[in-house]
Amino acid sequence: MNGLLVLLVLVTVGMGVTSVLFNWRAPQLRERMQQTRAQMPSSGEERLDLWLVYGQPYFHARLIQLRYSTQRPWLVTHTVGGERSAGPVEVWGVDIANLEPQATGRDGLCVTLTLPPPKLLARESFGLDGNDMANNVPHYASAELAPDPRERARSIVTWALERLIRPLERDIPGARFEVRFLADPAAAAPAGG
């Protein structure tokens, strides 16, 4: 019985101290929050610049998670050739080995992610190494049946970053997201960020 009483006293004191501390600090925290809101930029481009400070590392980390493996730092879009289990196939995608956080930038109200162009990455046995990511890579018997690697890479990236893109577009009116490739004429060096 004494142990139960001690436990009850400890819980009551712990919760009481926390409650008192919160009520004492709440006005200061509210004032700091209001000051931060007042200092927020009002224009969309300034808000995007601020968003990039925090968004770039998240975009970069998510893209790194898309790599096939550390030995093959590729965003694999598809494979082409005979059966994967029968021998080497063409592995298509984007080499993101040297991807930097600065690949995400701003062009007006558009957040841009500029990637190297998709290309033939290797001719090798694919998916036989036990990597589960191979299960998500479509395989085509011929190049004519395969999708445009740029469009496939765009769709993979947009899907992977959707949880970051949706709030961005919701919170900053007019903001949008676009994947560009270095060889694209529109893929000039991103402004801001």
List the helices and strands and how they pair.
Layout: H1 2-39, H2 44-65, E1 74-80, E2 89-95, E3 104-107, E4 110-115, E5 119-124, E6 139-140, H3 149-171, E7 176-181
Parallel strand pairs: 1-6, 4-7
Antiparallel strand pairs: 1-2, 2-5, 3-4
What structural keywords apply?
three-stranded mixed beta sheet, 3 helices, disordered C terminus, 193 residues
Description:
The structure is a single chain. The chain is of the alpha/beta class. It is built from three helices and seven strands. The chain has helices at residues 2-39, 44-65, 149-171, and strands spanning 74-80, 89-95, 104-107, 110-115, 119-124, 139-140, 176-181. The chain has a four-stranded mixed β-sheet, with helices on one face. β3 (104-107) and β4 (110-115) form a beta hairpin. The longest helix has 38 residues, at 2-39. Residues 185-193 have low confidence and may be disordered.
**First CA to last CA: what distance?**
63 Å
List segments where confidence is low: pLDDT < 50 over at least 5 consecutive residues.
Answer: 185-193
Major beta sheet, strand line-up: 5-2-1-6
Structural class: alpha/beta
Shape: flat
Residue fraction in strands: 15-25%
The share of residues in helices is 40-55%
Radius of gyration: 25 Å
- Tally of DSSP helical segments: 3
Mean pLDDT: 87
* Biggest sheet descriptor: 4 strands, mixed
Order of SSEs? HHEEEEEEHE
- Strands, total number: 7
